[in-house]
Write a structure and sequence with these properties.
Elements: H1 8-15, E1 17-18, E2 23-24, H2 30-44, E3 48-51, E4 54-57, H3 67-78, H4 84-89, H5 92-105, E5 109-112, E6 115-116, E7 119-120, E8 124-127, H6 130-145, H7 155-167, H8 175-180, H9 182-192, H10 199-210
Antiparallel strand pairs: 1-2, 3-4, 5-8, 6-7
Helix pairs in contact: 1-2, 1-7, 2-3, 2-5, 2-7, 2-10, 3-5, 6-7, 7-9, 7-10
Length: 224
């Protein structure tokens, strides 16, 4: 977010907020969704490339300047060859944990650290820029429902909505919406895949990930 605008994974995270109650609406499936957004953005920038079905860094010096995206690049570099689908869930909590403080630094969230019984509790995040998030959600719903022709939708916006629909984000789409607009969702996925050919595979993995009870569990922490 070096230019001040949220990255694709950050936008997906913000879309999951219930702006009325100021709480997340889709926490169990959030980690793989945010990770999918990071994969998609890295592929769109050409920093991750497809090597016979495997996600591979363009080169060892590849970097985006975004700490969330670069954290994922580093994970991919340090790992053995793995297919794109595996990265949707593998250590997905690492990417989610990186997005939150980044959004707090940008003013979208407020980070609160509290002490109880002498111990520092985990940081809790509260939504701050409610109107900005509501605008993001309106734009996503408009992209889903039209009337703008899919061919005129920016490719990144198409990918955003395709991923949000795959995860079933209730702030963007309902089950009835997904059935009613099934063809448009498929068209948006195809539109996004013009810039990111692996997007359909990522979308399918997001659908599979959010359907399992443990799919979005972050990796176990070690140390204090």
């Amino acid at each position: 977010m070096s230019d001040g605008s949220p990255s694709l994974p950050a936008r997906l995270y913000l879309l999951a907020w219930d702006t009325t109650r100021r709480r997340l609406r889709h926490d169990p499936g959030l980690a793989p969704l945010v990770r999918a957004g990071a994969l998609t953005e890295l592929a769109g920038r050409g920093l991750l490339v497809d090597a016979d079905g495997v996600a591979a860094p363009r080169d060892l010096d590849a970097h985006s300047g975004d700490p969330v995206l670069d954290g994922l690049l580093e994970l991919v570099m340090e790992s053995g060859p793995r297919p794109w689908e595996s990265w949707v869930t593998r250590y997905a909590g690492v990417t989610l944990d990186a997005v939150r403080p980044q959004l707090a630094a940008a003013g979208f969230l407020r980070a609160d650290s509290r002490r109880g019984l002498g111990l520092l509790r985990p940081v809790e995040y509260t939504l701050e820029r409610v109107q900005a998030v509501e605008a993001l959600q309106r734009e996503a719903r408009q992209t889903l429902t039209g009337p703008e022709p899919v061919a005129e939708v920016p490719e990144e916006d198409a990918a955003l909505v395709a991923l949000a629909a795959a995860a079933g984000l209730p702030t963007v789409t309902s089950p009835a919406d997904r059935e009613r607009h099934r063809e448009r969702i498929e068209a948006l996925t195809a539109r996004g895949s013009r810039a990111v050919p692996v997007l359909p595979r990522i979308v399918l993995e997001v659908r599979a990930a959010v359907s399992g009870p443990d799919a979005a569990a972050p990796p176990a922490r070690t140390g204090g």
